[in-house]
Design brief:
Layout lengths: L1 E5 L14 H4 L9 H15 L3 E3 L9 H15 L2 E5 L6 H9 L2 E6 L13 H16 L5 E6 L6 H16 L4 E6 L8 H4 L3 H18 L5 E3 L1 H9 L19 E5 L4 E3 L21 H6 L27 E2 L2 E2 L8 H18 L14 H9 L62
Parallel strand pairs: 1-2, 1-8, 2-3, 3-4, 4-5, 5-6, 6-7
Antiparallel strand pairs: 8-9, 10-11
Length: about 425
Amino acid sequence: MAISVKATVACNLNCEYCYEKEFRKTGKLQSWDIKKIKKAMKEEYERTGKTISLHGGEPLVLPKKDLEELFAYAKKLGGSTGLQTNGLAIDDDHIEMFKKYDVHVGISFDGPGELNRLRGTKEQTDIIEKNFYKLVANDINPGNIVVLSKANGLPKQREALKDWIKELRSLGVNGGRLNLVKVDDPELRPEIELTEEEAIDLYTDLADFILVEEDNLRGWQPFRDVIDNMLGLGMGTCIFTKCDNYRGVAERVINGDGTLSYCFKTGTKDFVYLREPDKKPTTERYDMLGQVPQEHGGCKDCKYWRICYGGCPSEGMEDGEADWRYSGRYCNVWKALYERAEKAIKRLMPNVELVIDKNVDDEEKFYQARRSNRMEPSAFRLLTKNDAANPSASSSSVRTRKSNKCKNNKNDKKSRVVKDTNHGDHMDHGDSH
């Protein structure tokens, strides 16, 4: 769970798809009290030990004196800090602070030129791009969050997006997040949000580009997250975990007045910005989704349930209306990406035992083990000479040494080769999940 300091939700841009946009109009949480923020930072860091990051709104709208005080205090507590910014206001003073206080900088930028048109004007985009290069020139390697929309994700913009990703690689920036846009306003949605077919085409194309066609793009998500999640090597981003809509535990937020809340993605639509951060999250969404048929907006019998859990509650939708009780609007997009990843992994490693292949008695225990990167047995348990007669061969031809020793003859030290029955991709036949 990350600790985000939202000293203000005020911003110097007016992004068309911003999930805080309507909330900002209320005028709430746009002033700040540095003493109260620092008090909350100390308490939360001592309680969790998690890295503190400045978020917003736009954190660089804060006066430099206040900003430096927060950076200095975060470094004192944890040794470093983070910052997520749109990059528009970065100047030499900020860069000096970033270096002095070991600030990991993340830029929210959808690409040069027209790729960024939903975030700002051409002049603003040019400034942000120059500031990005300025960070790199000053030995600051920024992360990047790219929101994929009709401005940068359609086929006619695709090559420009890929060229920009390759250009970043040439600068030593080989990672970031490529997130599908979410728009709740039904009037704006057709102009901004990708259709299901467009999003499937985009994500599968980008997966091939990043994972297969190009080298040294290993840091671009969610594609690596998908692979790791399949293999039980950690769940990656919060969208692959269970999240209570009213207690979005993936992000602990410190507001400008020192109060605590959770992820704003699930709250700003209804202006539910202050949560009950010390109450235990509920599991009602997942109890429902696991039982409701897919044709009715649930996830029952979905093969990829364990690596998705219906997606972020803020993306839930039914009949064109946002509703956290349903699976995410990009459900079929994720399925297409998971299917592509599953086939690729099993073509290379037929004996691999993916998370979706496991037979599990206690699902919640299995979930918690995976969250802690402690899945047992490992996905790779059939890929060593100690456990398989032919690790890289299809499991349809070879079973494990240990499990196939003759049970009736304790002195039989040789493994038996046993034919499987027309299955071929794993050993325990647990692929019904």
